[in-house]
Specification:
With 283 residues, the protein is mainly α. 78% of the residues lie in helices and 0% in strands. It has one domain: MetI-like fold. The two termini are 36 Å apart.
Length: 283
């Protein structure tokens, strides 16, 4: 066997487990989901009724809009927290302090999202830590229920997604030569002009990668939203869960899933086009 052919065969052999994993656990389920979305629940015949249910029902459209708006808001808040943190880690702290801060950022994510959500429930519930602290300080005379509000859900989503925004930005900023920042100050630039003209443009690929990951994770989140927002948190993934598990309507749930997946892909593609970012360069 020729050497080139042998190398290609070895490469495909190494890739085979990964390709089988992706095929069986990602590609095939999505194909099945897509086909189910076009089938009638009772007859199995081709139909667009499952999609028409979404577009003709104002309740589903309202929940979907609410989900998208708050997903964008959570992504922006995460970025507003992550970017300064990443800048301080890469350009301000020394190597020892940087390592400690990065470990402190990563360490909470060693536990599952479910445990993180339960932790926030302990803090925000009526008899929780935050309510007790307010009563101890004399700010309020009674317990306050902080759970089951939109802002509570946002706090939980930002916390569970922060790592996926910080790490890509840190990776981008680490490649920024400090001499460029020094040159900006030498030429009369200030902090904000340096940020605007040098730091932010250089870190744009990391910002884009982090924003895409956070937006996707938040848009499709179920655990944190349900635990912190309750059953009436108006998140579209709860509608999908309701169709699959509660109503046993897999065809309608599949249509809702395809709509959510299609929108997320189109939304990310549109943002990339508007910002003129290349996803291959960003990755």
């Amino acid at each position: 066997m020729p050497t080139g052919l042998k190398r290609r065969a070895s490469l495909w052999l190494l890739l085979l487990p990964m390709l089988m994993w992706i095929g069986f656990l990602f590609v095939l389920p999505h194909i099945k989901l897509f086909l189910l979305s076009f089938q009638d629940r009772y007859t199995g015949a081709f139909t667009l009724k499952n999609y028409a249910t979404f577009f003709t029902n104002p309740l589903y459209r309202g929940v979907f809009t609410h989900t998208v708006v708050y997903s964008v808001l959570a992504t922006l808040i995460t970025l507003a927290i992550a970017f300064p943190a990443a800048f301080v880690v890469t350009k301000v702290l020394d190597e020892r302090a940087k390592a400690l801060v990065v470990i402190a950022i990563i360490l909470p994510y060693w536990v599952s999202e479910l445990i993180q959500a339960f932790t926030w429930m302990v803090i925000f519930r009526e008899t929780g830590i935050l309510s007790y602290l307010l009563r101890t300080l004399g700010i309020t005379s009674h317990n306050i229920e902080f759970l089951y509000h939109n802002w509570t859900v946002i706090v939980g989503l930002v916390y569970t997604s922060l790592l996926f925004m910080v790490i890509p930005i840190i990776n981008s900023l680490e490649t920024l030569d400090d001499s460029l920042i020094e040159a900006s100050y030498d030429l009369g630039g200030n902090f904000w002009s340096t940020m605007r003209e040098i730091v932010i443009p250089h870190s744009a690929p990391g910002i884009m990668v982090g924003s895409i990951m956070v937006f996707m994770l938040v848009l499709g989140n179920y655990v944190t939203v349900t635990l912190l927002g309750g059953k009436n948190s108006f998140w579209f993934t709860e509608n999908i869960y309701d169709q699959f598990i509660v109503r046993f309507n897999q065809h309608q749930g599949a249509a809702f899933s395809v709509i959510l997946l299609t929108f997320s892909v189109l939304f990310v593609w549109t943002v990339l086009k508007i910002t003129k970012q290349d996803i291959t360069e960003a990755m």
